[in-house]
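On clarity, I found the account of how folds are encoded harder to follow than it need be. What matters is that the chain and its backbone geometry are given together, residue for residue. I therefore recommend that a typical entry be quoted early in the introduction. An entry of this sort, consisting of the sequence and the corresponding backbone structure tokens, reads as follows:
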Amino acid sequence: MRRLKVSFYIAAACVLASCATGPGQLPGTVKLTVLHTNDHHGRFWKNNNDEGGLAARKTLVDSVRAEVRAEGGHTLLLDGGDVNTGIPESDTQDAEPDFKGMKLMGYDAMALGNHEFDKPLPILARQMKWAGFPMISANIYKDGQRLYKPYEMFERGGLKIAVLGLTTDDTKKMTDPANTVGLEFRKPADEAATLVPKLRRRAHVVIAATHMGHYTNGKSGVNAPGDVEMARQVKGIDLIVGGHSQNPVCMLEQLGASFRNDAYVPGTACAPDRQNGTWIVQAHEWGKYVGRADFEYTNGQFKLVKYALLPVNLKRPIKGADGKDTKQTYMPEIKEDSAMLALLQPFQDNGRAALDVVVGESDGVLDGNRDNIRSRPTNMGVFIASVMMQKAGADLGLMNAGGVRESMPAGKLTYKDVLKVQPFGNMLSHVTLSGAELMAYLNVAAKMTAGSGAFAHFAGVILVIEGGTVKSASIKGAPIDPAKSYRLALNSFQANGGDGYPKLTDHPGYVNTGFVDADVMREYLGKNNIRTANFAPGDAVVRR
């Protein structure tokens, strides 16, 4: 009787303390290959150089699966998030071809990225149905409860694998706040610190599928902390499959440095980052690569055997026999999967029909390159701010760099070119402010750090900024008068408080025009050919 009571008390104590015996030891060695992608951004179809695309990606993934299976191993296919936003053919169809294509490819799970919230939540719910695989995140809450499934459990050859999803806590300021009303994005590392010990008691291997960013040596700058910081803070994660920063994480031993485009040969072996016992991987962006990590699990040890980034028909320039420049794939060309093409072709046809219409012309390139427009004034930033200002009848215009996703070429411009630059469907807004209010707002804009999506581009105003503070500001040749009123044009994302700007939608002088930003640009192009000299940044903004 006494022995029975003791057993009962031990069992009860284990229940109260969440005791667990663990997943148990496995005999022999289990081989696991983790395949991964991230930051797809609407690239379901190959580009103009016949690079990337889901059809070639499926052929590559299927071939690796067959190879691993023939050697007695197992595979897991994961994604680090941001399937949405980037290519008009996808954007105009709510990424239906992308999610359905990923389902056909057999993805096992993906992290929710910040761009999954570019459209209202009902569309995300529809996308989850199209995908048919788990889209997970542990740190998104509503009314104090997790809104989405925090993790998914898998088993491969007896090996129990937990995959934990995490999303950058920068999401609310990086997407239209109207789409995240009532949502709370908690610090991912805090959620991991709570969940990882519990998952370790259930699984042999714990993987985090994240959309947080890889920042070398944990230097995340103006961004929320990423994978490196979390790995250093939370012990027990075997592998982080990341996304968000859109950089390939591939260490070259012979260089002793991070991946460099001018040094790494796509397809060759390299090593992921390693922090606090955790491997960290990321496969650049847009389906350019499929990451391949080959592991072996033996006697409780999860060992990385080999790692590489496999290019999906990426090409390099070479000199042809005739002396002319041509392009050649780094590795043997990957044929496109016929079943995937059959699925995607109708979507591609539907998208192209409306997008290939010529809507205007430019005499030169408008620079929307991500690195450039987020670090200094460019003619693209001035152009968009000017177009908004003109349409709104405003005194000045302001454009956040993160709302610009592409450059515009010289020559004929199509509706597709417009949507590649502004794919988010933000509305043109304007607000009437007193001069004092406007100066306060401009001082906030002046502090937006170079390198971030919040970096501000201006039109209609001449500013002198010193140390992040506006020292002087003039409109139409006159200093801003604190007692006068001025109309500021901006997009609804910024007006809603996006990118950390002050919220203006509750201001009595705020107006949402209802005009979509891309359509405003299209209208301008229909009436005016672009003269790039008219939008040169010049000395309009002087930073000291």
Summary: Residues 33 and 294 are 4 Å apart (CA to CA). The longest helix spans residues 338-355. Residues 356-543 form a domain with the 5'-nucleotidase;  domain 2 fold (CATH 3.90.780.10).
